[in-house]
Amino acid sequence: MALLRSGLDAGSVEAQRNREAMLELLGRLEQLLAEVNLGGGAEYVERHRSRGKLLARERVELLIDPDTPFLELQPYMAHHSDYATGASIVTGLGTVNGVECVIVANDPTVRGGTNNPYTLRKALRAQEISLVNRLPFISLVESGGADLPTQAETFVPGGAMFRNITRLSAQGIPTVSLVFGNSTAGGAYLPGMADYTVFVEGRAKVFLGGPPLVKMATGEDSEDEELGGADMHARVSGLADYLAHDEADALRIGREIVDSLGWRKRGPGPARAPREPLYDQEELLAIPSADPKAPFDTREILARVLDGSLYEEFKPLYGTALTTGWGHAHGYPIGVIGNVRGILFNEEAQKAAQFIQLANQKDVPLVFVHNTTGFMVGKEYEQRGIIKDGAKMINAVANSRVPHIGLVVGGSYGAAHYAMSGRAYDPRFVFAWPNAQSSVMGPAQLAGVLSIVGRASAEARGLPFDEDRDLEMRAAVEHQIEDEQTALSNSSRGYDDGIIDPRDTRTALGLALSAIHGNEIAGADGFGVFRM
Fold it and tell me: How far apart are CA 123 and CA 196, in angstroms?
């Protein structure tokens, strides 16, 4: 493999300007994450602690192995909504007694850990990650079930959470529920369908209907403990497999359960010993331009992410606006497809389609590094068959069976977002940098198209065109798209698995690669019809 040579002058005025712009974005996200970590706010956190309980992230920290990372997923979910940022649930990847697991923890300081539409979306994504990558699934439960004011949006699709738990079990993927407090209504099915359950004595209360509902439904008077207490479930109903003395004891038992699984990955381990890149990962902050319209070479990113900064480029002289090639990250072999100059032309689409087929022949995962404004348009390119060539690339992406990982390091627009294995194409993981932007097209372009269409419509009807109103419309549309295309806006909708600090890219990629090798790595047997 060839050594990637960096052309970045980290001390230049431009690089420093880029770095400062990225640090400003990171500062805003860190402030928001600090607020998310406070849960439902100081009052609710203090009330929770006064009951002798740990916070959701504290439970996660005690569950995973000391000094190992927890890759939190979708922490900004629901930010651009009326619900609390984070969606009252913590999800992520952590190592428990040496076993990589998907961990989901209800945050009871946010509306009692109830599930709103964004909670559901986030929880289902965690279950999907567990299923496709064959990772044991651990629930840290304290939930009031559905957030009743939103039941119309959560009740019907919410059943998928319970279906998925049973499907995980049917696939031989262990599911473990540790219950720390109230787990009512729909929340009761989280332990009810798990392979292993641990209840905290005097704390866990699991019932389909609490005393008030039972009174209304049957006229029966009952107390919490006799209706759904931990001791009753351990001695009478049999729902509790283990009775823990306190929260720390429950987490200890959970760790022992995972240790007893004898869990083994189905995928291969690293093909070689990891090697640090030759270039400083701190310089990743200075690579994306402070001007989102200015392109940059994603090979500069690869030089600071790939093992030893080594990269075997495929077809380097053909379709040069896209780089394709082979490398390793943390010892795992990967194929890379990265945008270099933003636009995808006919040659780039053809090269990518061929490379994706090669990766499937070799059973090698693909990493897509997004920074694209879309497929090239115009009379020349339409006549050359840009639609056919773009369709080849999308066909290859859609029918590829090796795992895909996405890194959105700049723009990701239009059909090129799909061609680069965007969220709709089921990549195993997608991570975004703080400067990432994604929408059907750029704000000015979208507003301009609407303006042209409106002008043509007025002319066709013989009506005067209101120039002042058109200017107002364009300004409003541009403002709307500028807000909707940001990394934070897309992340809040669950369109990625989290916004990462560029300096953490290699670590996040390594954790994702390790996770996907929990399952077999096998390419496609065939592809759909490629229109020639």
Answer: 19
